[in-house]
Automatic annotation (TrEMBL):
Span of domain Phosphofructokinase: 6-285
Species in which this protein is naturally found: Alkalimonas mucilaginosa
PANTHER family named among the record's database cross-references: ATP-DEPENDENT 6-PHOSPHOFRUCTOKINASE, PHOSPHOFRUCTOKINASE
EC number: 2.7.1.11
Superkingdom of source: Bacteria
Protein name as it appears in the record: 6-phosphofructokinase
């Protein structure tokens, strides 16, 4: 068993509901093992600049239900340089930390790997991102809440779409991944879903979107039509696509971009439980000597996955749901 007396923790990159629950779990589990926890503010910036605070159990009381992160988060361009990685490692050595826990996505894990080149302590990652685009875990912390947030918005948009007999195009987050769009689209009963896994959509391919709309209006008598779209799937975004659809068929199509609303809010139960489980598991695995690994959950079992491999390939979306949605859309 490794000797761990003092560890650091930070949240990096885009915030995700459940990050606070994960911080809480790390602190409480560490306290049970007589391990001191140092929390760095504003992601890697706090690590490089020496902006930190000692976290005790009373600091994490009543935060499990809070969105955001009490440690704050930020991008850190400085860490993309060797000087930045060396400065971060220097802080870890200066504070005599035996290990560092990084809560974030694949970009944050790349930063952890850069620091590892100059630091002899242990480093573990915890997958905190709404995008669910990290390999080695079935779900990331924040993903379930993001789906519920999107679903609530789409359900409300359906009401007004029905009332005015309109087409609505709802743009969701997901960078280059369609996890949120596919899940929220299926759960809301959206008529169409546009995400990277279905292929890129160009203005010259607009007929693939328009034809199902026209068929639904004429053959199925629909009074509303919802298209859920992942960001970056059409040149100019959802606003441009909505205008192009309106011009093409003469029926008004409105765009609604949910944006950062998907990253906020109180985490749902699934995210609180996942964050608590992985936070505790990560601390326990440090005691077992784990290094340069990510704590994830596959088939309801916590496990370790190489940190380097977590972002090497594009995580596959559920192929069954993809096939089902394509069949329904083409029916």
């Amino acid at each position: 068993m490794a000797t761990i007396r003092r560890i650091g923790v930070l949240t990096s990159g885009g915030d995700a509901p459940g990050m606070n629950a994960c911080i809480r779990s790390v602190v409480l589990t560490a306290a049970a093992h007589q391990i001191e926890v140092i929390g760095f503010s504003h992601g890697y910036n706090g690590l490089i600049e020496g902006d930190y605070t000692k976290l005790l159990p009373y600091h994490v009381q009543h935060i499990i239900q809070l969105g955001g992160t009490i440690l704050k988060s930020a991008r850190c361009p400085a860490l993309q340089t060797e000087e930045g990685a060396k400065a971060a490692a220097a802080t870890l050595r200066q504070l005599q930390l035996d290990a560092l826990l990084v809560i974030g996505g694949d970009g944050s894990f790349k930063g952890a790997l850069a620091i590892a080149q100059h630091y002899k302590g242990q480093i573990l990652g915890l997958p905190g991102t709404i995008d669910n685009d990290v390999d080695g875990t079935d779900a990331t912390i924040g993903y379930a809440t993001a789906i519920d947030t999107a679903l609530d918005a789409i359900d409300k948009i359906r009401d007004t779409a029905d009332a005015f007999e309109r087409i609505f195009l709802v743009e969701l987050m997901g960078r280059h991944s369609g996890f949120i769009a596919l899940s929220a689209g299926i759960a809301s009963g959206a008529e169409q879903i546009i995400c990277p896994e279905f292929g890129t959509l160009e203005p010259g391919q607009l007929d693939t979107v328009i034809r199902p709309i026209q068929n639904a209006q004429v053959l199925k008598g629909k009074s509303s039509y919802i298209i859920v779209m992942a960001e970056h799937c059409y040149p100019g975004g959802s606003t441009t696509l909505a205008a192009d659809i309106t011009d093409a068929i003469g029926i008004e199509c409105r765009a609604c971009v949910l944006g950062h609303i998907q990253r906020g809010g109180s985490p749902v139960g699934a995210d609180r439980i996942l964050a608590t489980k992985l936070g505790a598991y990560a601390v326990e695995q440090l005691l077992g000597g784990a290094h340069l690994m990510m704590a994830g959950e596959v088939n309801h079992q916590a496990g370790l996955y190489p940190l380097q491999a977590s972002g090497e390939r594009k995580k596959r979306i559920d192929p069954y749901l993809l096939r089902w949605q394509q069949q329904v859309a083409n029916d």
